[in-house]
Amino acid sequence: MPSMAAKIDPEQQEKITAKIERVRFHNPDNSYCILALDNGVTAVGYMPSIRTGDEYEFTGTWKTHPKFGKQFAFTEHQMLMPSSREGLISYLCSVATGIGPVKAGRIVETLRDDCLDKIQADPGVLAKVPGVTPEQAEEIHKALTENRVLAELTALICGQGITPRLAAKIYKQYGAESLDVVKENPYVLADEMFGVGFKTADKIARAVGIPEDSPYRIKAAVKWLLNEAGNDGHCYLRPSEIMARLPEALGMRVEVAPVAAAVKALQERGEVVREGDCIYYAKMYEAEKELAGRVRGMVAGNG
Fold first, then answer.
1. By CB neighbour count within 10 A (0-12 exposed, 13-18 middle, 19+ buried), where does 303 fall?
2. 175 in the Ramachandran plot: left (φ > 0), alpha (ψ -120 to 50) or beta?
3. Where does the ATP-dependent RecD2 DNA helicase OB-fold domain lie (predicted)?
4. Taking the domains of the chain in order of start, what are their residue ranges?
């Protein structure tokens, strides 16, 4: 930690490692928190779940609050798994209901210092530990998996301006498969999660290394353009209009062939409909057909 007299550069990213000593404030709605760390630092940022005693590597900048003074505003955090016997026992007690210091101690003594890795690989190893029931073994395995996946997910995507709260929502929806989902095709989040659009999914895609010319990205951008057109009162776009708007959406030039392939793939999946030179978002197409049917019915009824 810099001395109190040191000049604070708000743009200078730093890393600090410390344990959470106390949670001064935590908003469960948006995950914002104020933490007292064991090195005397006050840290502020977003964390979906917090346990005192856990050690983290925080990445962020120093800032001076007009009322509370110097604080470390972190944008990324990576949990450091315990390695000492005492740390392992404390961690096991904190993550699993019904596991106290005695039983946690037996787990560490039986499975040794790499007990967490062994349990995550195969919860059946807990059968070797006296007093641990199959139900407790499953709960411990589930808790360790959740903590690992959520920590890795948060560390992976939150450097692109994605909040830990969204990482927690992704985990809630996809569970242990969360990492696989965002690494393979994060654009499915825009289809399957309320409040996640193309722009957010695109940030996650950059974080996980999806190529900018990925077919997944082009298909998602086409759907986004059609949806935006619908919001502006247009039921469809022509291919030429899509080609004209894609460079701005993608931040790059794109050739006709991959766009045509994307539209064809979306047609085959029933996500878009093409009639002549008009490309519709499928939902918009069905809505227009229904509206046209109602209008025809009204006209016929008045005839």
1. exposed
2. left
3. 14-82
4. 14-80, 152-208, 215-289
- CATH code given to domain 14-80: 2.40.50.140
How many whole angstroms separate alpha carbon 265 and alpha carbon 274? 12
Amino acid at 137: A
Radius of gyration of the chain (CA): 26
Chain centroid offset of residue 13 CA:
22
Q: Tokens at residue 121, please?
A: 């690989």
283: number of CA atoms within 13 Å, CB side? 9
Long-range CB contact pairs, 48-51, < 8 A, 24+:
48/150, 48/154, 48/164, 48/165, 48/167, 48/168, 49/150, 49/168, 50/20, 50/23, 50/26, 51/20, 51/94
Give the β-pairing of 32-37 and 14-26. Answer: antiparallel
Instruction: Decide: pTM greater than 0.70.
Output: yes
Kindly report, residue by residue over 61-78, the tens digit of the pLDDT: 999 999 999 999 998 888
How far, in Å, CA of 86 to CA of 245, rounded? 58
Could you tell me the sign of the dihedral formed by the alpha carbons of 130, 134, 138, 139, in that order?
negative
Cβ proximity of 217 and 250 under 8 Å? yes
Determine the topology of domain 215-289 in CATH: Arc Repressor Mutant, subunit A (1.10.10)
